[in-house]
Design goal:
InterPro entries: Peptidase_U57. With 284 residues, this protein is an alpha/beta fold. Helices cover 34% and strands 19% of the residues.
């Protein structure tokens, strides 16, 4: 077994597909390939996977991803129709669209690439940056005044420690990266205190949902301390970007549209960031 191998954990019934991030003395550091989970496991507990698409876990994820992508496309089409209906009866001039701009910080480079591809497919302007979760607060402090986004995504890998009591689930020290995410959210809120002025989406698998909301997130994971899919924060950011600024983002719709659902992601009422304008600029 070596770094980069695809593996599953025998003790968990092979429920999640991981990539070996590093080999330690008698254990391995693991990162989920579909879920934003950071874990470690003894080497004897790991089994290598030669064909990841053949695993039951991967097949179930693909079905959920397909359903979520279909909902995104439906949203995009609905927003286009809505904008057309609002503008056409009032003017013959061509209008233009301004989706909300996203700044996406990600602790996983592979997930970042997938996220940026999806933003592009959906026509959402986005800037992405790969960096360790512990660096996100400092980088945001410098980047926010420069980029001035409408939406910030703060994500990567996380996980709640196994060896703790149920009462300790609300202690930030029992999470692998939740404190880093909280620090980054606080920086974002220092920059823009109005939750409708800057929409913050934060967290990863099993993250401390309550702490992230209290720090200032509009949307966060994970109310049920479950695994969330790599694209769940992206789905929420796209929904925020394409919802008209005069409308509240439909909470049940956006949460149930994610792959992990209401136990994976929650949030508060927030206005969308999509605008239309007149007249359409002439390209010279």
């Amino acid at each position: 077994m070596k770094q980069g191998d695809l593996v599953v954990r025998k003790s968990y019934g092979g429920d999640v597909l991981f990539r070996v991030e590093a080999i330690l003395t008698q254990s391995a550091l693991l990162k989920g390939t579909d879920y934003r989970l950071l874990a470690d496991a003894p080497l004897p507990d790991l089994s290598t996977v030669s064909d990841p698409e053949s695993t039951r876990a991967a097949q179930q994820v693909r079905i959920k991803v397909k359903d979520s992508l279909e909902k995104m496309n439906t949203l995009k089409q609905r927003m286009a129709v809505s904008a057309n209906e609002r503008m056409r009866p009032q003017t013959d001039a061509s209008y233009f669209e301004m989706p909300g701009r996203v700044l996406h910080l990600d602790g996983d480079n592979n997930y970042l690439k997938k996220s940026m591809q999806l933003y592009g497919t959906m026509g959402v302007p986005a800037q992405g940056l790969y960096l360790h979760e512990s660096q996100m607060a400092d980088v945001l402090y410098r980047l926010l005044p420069q980029t001035r986004p409408d939406i910030v995504v703060i994500t990567g890998h996380d996980g709640v420690l196994k060896h703790r009591t149920q009462s300790e689930v609300y202690n930030l020290t029992n999470y692998k990266n939740s404190q880093n995410f909280v620090n980054a959210v606080r920086v974002a809120r220092q920059y823009e205190k109005n939750r409708d002025g800057l929409i913050v989406v934060a967290g990863a698998c099993q993250s401390h949902f309550e702490a992230l909301l209290q720090a200032g997130s509009n949307f966060a994971s994970s109310p049920g301390r479950i695994l969330i899919h790599a694209l769940d924060p992206v789905y929420i950011a796209i929904k925020a970007s394409l919802t008209p600024i005069r409308d509240t983002i439909n909470l049940p719709e956006v949460i149930h549209g994610t792959i992990s659902g209401i136990d994976g992601v929650g949030g508060i009422e927030s206005l969308g960031r999509f605008r239309v304008g007149l007249p359409k600029p002439k390209i010279t």
